[in-house]
# Entry
Amino acid sequence: MSKDKEAAQLGHHHETGKTQDLARNTTPRSEKDGMTDNFGHLISDDLNSLKAGVRGPTLLEDHLLREKIHHFDHERIPERIVHARGSAAHGYFELKESLEQYTTAKVLTEVGKQTPVFTRFSTVAGFRGSPDTPRDVRGFSVRFYTDEGNWDIVGNNIPVFFIQDGIKFPDLVHALKPEPHHEMPQAASAHDTFWDFISLTPESMHMVMWQMSDRTLPRYFDTMEGFGVHTFRLINAEGKSTFVKYHWKPVNGVHSLVWDESQKIMGKDPDFQRRSMWETIDQGGTYEWDLAVQLFSQEEADKWDFDILDATKIIPEELVPLKVIGRMVLNRNPDNFFAETEQVGYKPTNLVPGMDFTNDPLMQGRLFSYLDTQLIRLGGPNWQQLPINRPLVQVANNQRDGFMRQTIEPGRVSYHPASLDGGSPQEVPVSQGGFASYPEQISGEKLRKRAESFSDHYGQAKLFWNSLEPIERKHLCKAFQFELSKVETRHVRVAMIDQLEKIHPLLASQVAVALGEAPRADKVVKPGGTADCAEEMQLLAQAEAVTSASGGLTKAQGLSMEAQPPKGIRNRMVAILAADGVDGAQVDAIKQALEAEGAKGEVLGQHLGLLDGGAEAKKTISNSHMVLFDAVIVPGGAKSAAALLEDGDAHAYLLEAYKHGKPIAAYGEGQQVLQGSDLAALLGDQLGNAKSLGILSADAPAMAEFVQTLAQHRIWGRPQLKRISN
Ligand code: HDE
# Structure
């Protein structure tokens, strides 16, 4: 292990003296001394159990066998009830702009300081072994190991939530998870119980619009945004409170998969997103986000027609602009998945002095839950001492004991106040950095009731719809059609159409038609109805009405992904199709041009290893698939081109790339593959417009043009090829 790495790991330990060695369970032996059991005894045979005679029974006395199997039998812990499927990386957060005016928190005031972070991305519904790319909300949990203790932003990739009150969370999750009688479906909201609950919970309408949009199909972890969701407080040196919302903005831009592609990836590579992050970081790359905040006062909040304590509402950027204050860079993979990614326990109650909660009733429910859940998941109250959960600063209090206590504290004092053993540690006054809650004035009756200010459930759902580009509306509409068509109970489907009608009659009609129900707005649906949302989406009047609960806006910026400008091609993956005889020099030039932009060209050969012509294939055309790449290039080399023309799998790459709006390029003799492809046959005359369709070709690689096309991410609006439509 390198010195640096060792130091980084030891950074999680802060006991002193002799106790430290015991607590770390380090052994004075060097590795070459050999294998031991779990108590440090050297082992002479780890491959044969102890038997009475070589063909005889195994003896109960075989403590080595028993110890090994005892450990094995208990190697699984309960998975998270939600967000079980996840993957994480280490890195740092660097503050670029101080929020000193608003908070005393050092992590938000010490400009230039790099605070270590551990960030975990997850899906919500699926089990721990479920695929990475279902249609699902993504968790976005960031732990900052600050000099003042751990700070966790346990957020999602969607800025709002399904429910307004924590008491509904178990019901939401039970409805979403596989149905209890047969435990199906896995990692999918497309089933009766979920939509039954949603149709009876109008407050979820804004969230389900986001959920059915492309937001729940992120391409990579680093092409999705993150949000703290709730309104939090910052508190400055004068004790003044300012409200804050947190936003993570991916440096590589926001983009998504298409649904057909997502579904295929679940089979072709269920670890697709986890693998992409791992490989990028392993090869020296990074995943990066800017941290932006929205800061506002009570006086401003009082003017708005929605409640800042309601987690089903955003604060439109038009009301409070985003202010970028720093950057998070993920640059180190965990050493061990279980010890770090599985055992990390985030909790929204991890705040540092200068921060506080608000009365958001959803957040209030979370404040209890995250601590509670770890008791069973991680097995007791000392889960906070696991290396990944410990703060980097000293922990000092007189709490002792409990399951799996890691630290060994000397002395007789396990209470406070104490005068024995020096009486320490002492509390720290607020003026010297001690945590204090904001002294908010509270008065009122004790009751079970929701505030009137939480009652608008459709305004922001409309705002979201209005803010999308036509292609995004089309996808959203198709997602509703897909999900609800999987619902077997008709009254649940109809109840959902009723809800959608309150958002937009066109949307409701399009969905209704696909479900075999009468459209809700005849004029906007073709006679006979159509299940294709495309054309009708274009018919929408440009001027949508002002929406309620949005500060008087018609549409808001930042909601559409398509409207955000392209941000280069960093971390994108390009498939280079090759066979023996490929033009190796051209392949090198293509790869270098991509690498210069931070992207990667992967040679897919007809076989692994060195191809005649010089390129090396680490993957094959048949062991991989187009859905795992962002674009495809067919390079030159006459023999290679001739072989690819005969390769049905190679043809499929071009068809799939076309279908999913991905750039296609052919250079040199590779152009013959394109011209002779199944794709060309289906396109016919339309190949004349190839460039405008994102199909590029030239005698030599024209990489500037290719990079520009790839930066657009998708080429929408390609003429549909009926034979490969889904
Ligand atoms: Fe969570 N949530 N949640 N949640 N949540 C958990 O904690 C819970 C909510 C979120 O990467 C659990 O350690 C309640 C909103 C993420 O390890 C559990 C309520 C948001 C993660 C829990 C909510 C989230 C969790 C399961 C309503 C977005 C993964 C295991 C009151 C802002 C953390 C665990 C990780 C995990 C409870 C609502 C995000 C059971 C009761 C809103 C990203 O404690």
User: Anything to note?
Assistant: The longest strand covers residues 86-95.
